[in-house]
Design brief:
- With 137 residues, the protein is of the alpha/beta class.
- The chain has one domain: Rossmann fold (3-Layer(aba) Sandwich), CATH 3.40.50.
- It is built from 4 helices and 4 strands, in the order E-H-E-H-E-H-E-H.
- Strand 1, helix 1 and strand 2 form a beta-alpha-beta unit.
- Helix 1 packs across helix 4.
- The longest helix is centred in the C-terminal third of the chain and has 22 residues.
- The chain is globular, with a radius of gyration of 14 Å.
- The chain starts with a strand and ends with a helix.
- Keywords: Arsenical resistance.
- It comes from Pelotomaculum isophthalicicum JI.
- InterPro entries: Ptyr_pPase, Ptyr_pPase_sf.
- Pfam families: LMWPc.
Length: 137
């Protein structure tokens, strides 16, 4: 049976969406992967773009509230931003909680290329962290 993992950030627009897509792509045979936000908004077009660059399609993912997952039998909750960790320090029913804060690429300043570069950097940091953290069970 697959372990259910829920990634949480504030808006469920970039970091948690990328983490969901990355874990599903890398270790989907071992994990059911979800993402949600404490104040959901929309999936960032830049997040979709940088994931597409590494052949991971997150266009069908949507921004969701953590409320949708309270009774979903989540095994592991991962907060990927400090604000989400503060807003949701304990997730009802989760057997395990992890925290790894990543920079918010949506607040990056500069040209479109500089902003996309920030999304790439965060994507790669998340990918490396997942590779080191979610080994095959």
């Amino acid at each position: 049976m697959k372990k259910k993992v829920l990634f949480i950030c504030t808006h469920n627009s970039a970091r948690s969406q990328m983490a969901e897509g990355l874990l599903r792509h890398m270790f989907g045979e071992y994990y059911e992967t979800y993402s949600a936000g404490t104040a959901p908004s929309r999936v960032s077009p830049q997040a979709i773009e940088v994931m597409r660059e590494i052949d991971i399609d997150i266009t069908k993912q949507r921004s969701k509230s953590i409320d949708e997952f309270y009774n979903a039998g989540i095994d592991c909750v991962v907060t990927v931003c400090d604000h989400a960790r503060e807003a949701c320090p304990v997730f009802p029913g989760a057997k395990e909680s992890l925290h790894k804060g990543f920079e918010d690429p949506s607040i990056s300043k500069g040209s479109e290329e500089e902003i996309v570069a920030a999304y790439r950097r965060v994507r790669d940091e998340i990918r490396n962290w997942i590779k080191d953290t979610f080994i095959q069970p």
